[in-house]
């Protein structure tokens, strides 16, 4: 791991080259400053790990974005409280205030979807005291409110001020997943309210506990975030 301190207030790109004594370049690494920050919020009981647990689809997406050069953070959803405060909020505010970041993306699964709303809501409400930024992209995967660890209410509110919102959900049954379901969200992609994956051939019979692991869901989030926001 190599850390580089950028001592200019302006954003930029720089190359670190490894050369022979004769001046022949053996290898080079390009460094760039971050204009954006990505927050990935897991579901109840999902913890970040190294290596990433392949069954935690939200963190799989977050790590894939990190590998593409994004400043991506993987968090337990409970690091966002019901009013949106907490260490995740502090991380975003610090990036905006001290590192010139002006683009934010947030996505989450289950209770992490509820926390996505809570975080976006607090950022939007307090933007006057935070600085200049835009919430470029948000995403829910079977979003459930996160007012407590036992909250089962659907989170169907669109995150405030988001530029683009993706939404995937399933409708389930009591016997399959205890009514832990997301739902349609106005003005979401796939248009107009997101996708009930149980209406697709690949997602038929899907439950709350597996929806975040479908490659179709993960790829949709990743590709649309990349299209909406550069690192």
Question: What does the secondary structure layout of this molecule look like, with pairings?
Answer:
Layout: E1 13-19, E2 25-32, E3 36-41, H1 57-67, E4 72-75, H2 87-98, E5 103-109, H3 111-125, H4 127-130, E6 134-141, E7 165-169, H5 174-177, E8 195-196, H6 215-228
How does this model look, in words?
By secondary structure, this protein is of the alpha/beta class. The chain has one domain (about 35-230): Rossmann fold (3-Layer(aba) Sandwich). Helices cover about 25% and strands about 20% of the residues. The chain has 6 helices and 8 strands, in the order βββαβαβααββαβα. The chain has helices at about 55-65, 85-100, 110-125, 125-130, 175, 215-230; strands spanning about 15-20, 25-30, 35-40, 70-75, 105-110, 135-140, 165-170, 195. The strands form 2 sheets. It has a 6-stranded parallel beta sheet with strand order 4-3-5-6-7-8, sandwiched between helices. The chain has a two-stranded antiparallel ribbon with strand order 1-2. The model has no long low-confidence stretch (mean pLDDT about 95).
């Amino acid at each position: 791991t190599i850390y580089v301190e950028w001592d200019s207030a302006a954003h930029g790109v720089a190359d670190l080259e490894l050369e022979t004594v004769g001046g022949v370049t053996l290898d080079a690494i390009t460094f760039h400053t971050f204009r954006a920050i990505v927050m990935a919020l897991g579901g109840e009981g999902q913890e970040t790990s190294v290596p990433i647990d392949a069954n935690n689809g939200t963190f799989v997406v977050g790590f894939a974005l990190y590998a593409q050069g994004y400043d991506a953070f993987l968090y337990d959803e409970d690091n966002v409280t019901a009013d949106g405060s907490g260490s995740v909020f502090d991380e975003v505010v610090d990036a905006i205030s001290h590192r010139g970041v002006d683009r934010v993306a947030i996505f989450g699964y289950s209770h992490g979807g509820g926390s996505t709303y809570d975080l976006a809501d607090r950022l939007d409400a307090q933007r006057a005291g935070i600085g200049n930024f835009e919430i470029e992209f948000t995403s829910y995967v079977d979003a459930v409110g996160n007012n407590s660890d036992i909250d089962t209410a659907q989170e169907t509110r669109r995150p405030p001020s988001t530029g683009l919102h993706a939404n995937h959900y399933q409708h389930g049954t009591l016997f399959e997943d205890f009514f832990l379901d997301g739902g349609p969200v106005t003005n979401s992609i796939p248009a107009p309210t997101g996708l009930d994956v149980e209406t697709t051939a690949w997602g038929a019979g899907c439950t709350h506990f597996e929806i975040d692991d479908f490659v179709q869901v993960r790829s949709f989030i990743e590709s649309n975030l990349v299209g909406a926001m550069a690192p």
